[in-house]
Structure formats: C-alpha cells, structure tokens
Amino acid sequence: MTSLTLSRAPSRWRSGLRGLLLQRLFQAGLVAWMVGTLTFVLTRTLPGDMAYRIAAGRYGHDMVDSAAAEAVRAELALDQPALGAYLGWLWDLLQLDLGRSLVSGEPVIHELWHQLGHSLGLAVMAVLLSLLIGPPLGLLAGRKPAGLLDRGSELAASVLRALPPFAVGLLLIMLFSVALGWLPAAGHGRFAHSVLPALTLALALAAVSSRVARNAMAEVSQSAYYAFSHTKGLGARLSFLRHGLRNAALPVVAYLGVQFVYLIEGVVVVETLFAWPGIGHALVHAIVARDVPMIQGTALVMGLMFVALNTVVDLICHWLDPRRREA
Amino acid sequence: MKQVTLSAPRRQLSLPALSQRQWVGALLLALLLAFAWLVPLWHSADPARQQLVRILELPSLATPLGTDHLGRDLLARTAAAIRLSLGMALLSVVTAAVPGLLFGVIAGWRGGWLDRILGSVADACLALPGLLLVLLLVAIAPGNFWALYVGISLVLWIEYFRVVRARTRVLVTSPQLEASRLLGFGPLYLFRRHLWPELAPQVLTLAAFGAASAILAMAALGFVSVGLRPPTAELGLMMIELLPYYHEAPWAMAQPILALFILVFSLNLLAGKDPR
Asked: Looking at the complex, does the CB of residue A265 fall below 8 Å from at least one CB of chain B?
C-alpha cells in the first residue's frame, strides 16, 4: 500500500501544474507586450527629431550631422509609418534584441545582466531577512492573541506600514550610519553595504507578513483540529509542529506573492536611495536621461522578475496545499 | 455616489458604521485636512518664494515651521504639499472607484463573455507591478501631473473591480434579490436596495487603502526625482531636496516625513481591517 502511494505521489503533485504554469507564461508575454508598447509610445512622443537625439547620444553632440542622423533613422525605422515601426519594435523585442543604451553605448543586455545580479542579491537577502523577522514574530504573537507581544508587534507593524520604504531607509541611515556609525550609508562592494538596503526592504515586508502569520496562527489555534491535537495528547510543541505550522504557512507564502509587488516597487526607491547599482536604480536613471532602450530593458526585466517570483510562490503553495492540486 | 441621497429610508447608505479605530483615523485625517486648507487663510506666504538671506531658519513667529534651503516658508510648503497629495489621492480614488464599481457589478451580474473580457483587461493591468506601470507612463510625459494621475488610477481600479465582481456574483443569486426581481423591480433599484448596502463598507476600505497607496506612489516618484518637478511643493520632492541639509536642519527634514506618515497612518486606520 505504501509503495503504491509513494509511486503515485509525483503524478499527483504534478496535476494542475500545467494550467498554473501556462497562466504565468501568458502573464510574462503580457508584461513584454505592455512594456514594449509603452516604450514604443515613448519613442514616438519624444520632442524634437528622434534620429538626431539618438545620434547625439551615441556619437556625442559635436559629431552629429545629417548623415549620422539618417543612418540612425534607417536603423531604427524612424521614417516608417507608425504601425510598421510598432510591429518591427515588437519583433525586435521577441528576438530579445533590446538594442544599445543611448548613454553608454553598451548593449542593453550586457548592462542588464550585470545589474540583475545586484538586484537579485538584494531582493533575496531582503526576503530572507523578512522571513526571519516577520513570520516567527507573527506565529509567537498568534499563539496568544491580544497578549503583550501581539499588541506590541501590531503597533510596530502599523507604524512601519505607514512609512514608505525610502523614509524607513532614511531613518535607518540616520540611526546606524550617522548617529552610531556602525554601517556605511551608501555604496556597494562589501557585505556591510548591503545590510541597510536589505534591512529597509525586509522591515517593510516583515511588517505585513508578521500580521498575516499572526492572523493565520490565531485562526489555526482556535480551530477544532488544533484543539483535537491537544485532546489526543500532543504537547504544545508537537501540535504546533505537526498541525499548526503547515496550515499557518500557507497564507504567509500566498501573501508573499502580493508582497513581491511591494518588493519590486521598493527596489526602485531603495536602490536609488542607497546608490545600489541594480535594476531599479538603472530604471530611474534611464528615465531621467530618457534612454529609451534602457527603460525598456529594465522595465522588462523587473516585470519578468515579478512574474518569475510569483511562479515560485505558486509552486510552493501547490506543494504545501494538496487541496489545490485536484482543481 | 448619487444613489446615496435617494429618499428611501436606508441607514447604511450614508456611511457604514465605523469602528473606534476608524474614528481615530477619520479624526486624524480631518485634522490634517483642516491644517492643509486653513493654513493659507491666516498665513499668506507663497510656497515658492525664495529668500536666500533666510535659509534654514529655525521656527519663529514669522515662519512658524522654519524655512528650507532656499529660504522658502516651510509651513506654506508643507500645507501645499499635503493639499496636493490629498487632492491627487481623492481624484484618483474617485476615478478608480467609479469604473471599478460599475464594471465589477456588470461583470458579476451579467457573467459570460462580458465578464471574461473585463476580467482579462483587469489581469492585463495587473501583470506589471503598479509602480512600474506608473513609472513607464511618467517616462512618456515627465513631470506631468496628469500622467501620474492616469497611471495611479489605472492601477487602483482593478482592486475595486475584483472585490465588487466577486461579491456581486454571490449577491445576485441571493433569495432576497431574486424576490425583488420577481416583483418586477428594475436593475437600478436592485442595485440600490440589495447590492450597494453590502458593497459600501468594502468600497470604503478599498478607497482608504487606495488613497494611501496613491499618496505613497506620488511621494516615491518625487523622491527618486522622476515625479513632479521642482519648485512644486510635494512631500517626496521636499524630502529629497532637504536630505543634504539633514545635519543643519533636522526639523526641516522631519516635516515632510512626519506629514506623509500621519497621512498614510490615518488612512490605514480609516480603512479598518488588518491586511488580509
């Protein structure tokens, strides 16, 4: 009997997975199309002659003449009617041809590859840190609703939720860099540089996830099956491990998906504040410099990162909750 | 909403009953509103007027909250920034709530292909993280208030749509609505009598959360200097402008942060519930 269930386990875990992945794949396509379309609109609404502008960006303002501008015009199909140019633009995007940055002249893909590593490092660190702070606190608070810890963490969470990430970052800089002098305020290179940006993001994420974990735990600890686990003789520790943890984990993990919106948004602001050489920083710079290929590339990568992270959350939920697999 | 003022005796239609926590939020928000709109009445300083001989002054009688690095009056600037933030929040919440509610009711009620089309439009708007969509729109028209407004509203309406649609689906099949329909009442009456009272508290919660996120989004864009342009008095912009002077003038730097904090805090309290 056991061997039978064991051999059937993988196929059951895989059921329903296909639809889930297809949905996310569709979302990724949608992201690419939206980013492509919006940046295309952006090129068409830039003031002045786009060809001259790009040529000036590439070759320097002194080297621009009409020949250079014409070359750019032909290369980027700026002289064609909008519809054809639009389709060409999307076709390039489909082939992952993101062009060159108008500021540095490097291929966008190169720069993105470089920045993505930094951003991912920061994001992973922030998520791990938030998971270390938030859910354990929430689980502890949820075991004694309306206790001291519950009230205290609720207050801290509401204060943190009302502060935008850049304000939290500023306060952390004031405290740890200026007043105490323990950590560097900005920069990149050593591990110490990544502590404050990661902590800034993590605190905001933990503020929400601790409350989600607390509510989930409070619900679980009042449920009939949890009471029964006590009745049948399991101690507090065992009934928590066997019956509490997995049930309470599900909303926390599911909510992570919602939090990734916050993470991506936070990355833009926090990287700018801490001068962290990641995607968000690059996006803001590209917008200020009106570097269209870079805007497209960075927005695309951030959108796709969002979809990828959500896919991971879907997969974990799928694994945690057998009830979903049948559907 | 127009429906609210109709004559039938329905107590829920005016405002859903508020909890104690929500009252505190409403009170804080009212105080902030009063501050923002009353200040110009008795303190007639121009928020953009520079006085370079009076930079970073401590609070005094002439300038009750001190001056910034260009000698501009901080009381006038903070009040103007709060007015701008609240105005933008109100505008985008209303713009988002009306179509969100309308499409949500239509999709939930009618179902079928209309539901599927509206649902996929909402999913498309949700594919990108909100701030990213706003950033791209702002890149098209930099420094433009309306680009910011369109972007934020485009992100906000989805939440109303989804909640209202899910709730309407359940309500439409309820026996009391069925009974009213069999008595021959029109869809408008059914909406007023059966749907709106149930939807109103949720719409209020969403509106408060939506206003908070609109304010945060605008401040975030101002802070990374891709939002509104100086010399506009805007909370995020004020923070980034005053950041280099935090050592000489910590009180100046604290003002926009505090104002933003109280704004968002009061709106979160007003929204009531914990995040799901």
From this structure: yes
pLDDT > 90: percent of chain B = 2
pLDDT of residue B50: 73
pLDDT at B216: 87
Least confident of A35-44, A46-55, B114-123, B236-245: A46-55
Q: What's the CA gap between B65 and B71, in Å, rounded?
A: 12
Regarding pTM above 0.90, the answer is: no
Q: For the domain with range B20-35+72-271, which CATH number is right: 3.40.350.10, 3.30.70.1350, 1.10.357.10, 1.10.3720.10?
A: 1.10.3720.10
Q: Is B214 on the interface with A (CB under 8 A)?
A: no
CB pairs under 8 A between A and B: 127
CB contact under 8 A, B220 and A170: no
pLDDT tens-digit series, residues A69-122: 777 777 666 666 677 777 777 777 777 777 777 666 677 777 788 888 888 888
Among candidates A40, A259, A49, A279, which has minimal Cα distance to B136? A40
Chain segment B140-198, per-residue pLDDT in tens? 777 778 888 888 888 888 888 888 888 888 888 888 888 888 888 888 888 888 888 88
* Nearest-CB residue to B128 (from A34, A212, A268): A34
Rounded distance between C-alpha atoms, residue A65 and residue A183, angstroms: 50
A-chain residues within 8 Å CB-CB of B264? 161-164
Query: Where exactly are the structural domains of chain B?
Result: 20-35+72-271
pLDDT score for B41: 77
How close B169 gets to chain A, by Cα (Å)?
20
Q: Is the ipTM of this complex over 0.85?
A: no
**Cα–Cα distance, A73 to A96 (Å, whole number):** 21
- B129, B140, B265 ranked by CB distance to A45: nearest: B140
What's the gap in Å between the CA of B85 and the closest CA on chain A?
Answer: 14
Query: Domain containing A185 — which CATH number?
Result: 1.10.3720.10
Taking an 8 Å cut-off on Cβ atoms, the answer to whether B275 and A208 are in contact is yes
* Nearest neighbour of A261 by CB, restricted to B129, B236, B247: B129
Element containing residue A38 per DSSP (H, E): helix A17-45
Identify the pLDDT of residue A285.
82
Q: In this complex, is the C-beta atom of A236 within 8 Å of any C-beta atom belonging to chain B?
A: no
Q: Sign (positive/negative) of CA torsion A81, A86, A87, A89?
A: positive
In angstroms, the Cα distances linking A307 to A23, A119, A310, A311 are 10, 15, 5, 6
Which of A164, A211, A265 lies closest to B260 in CB terms? A164
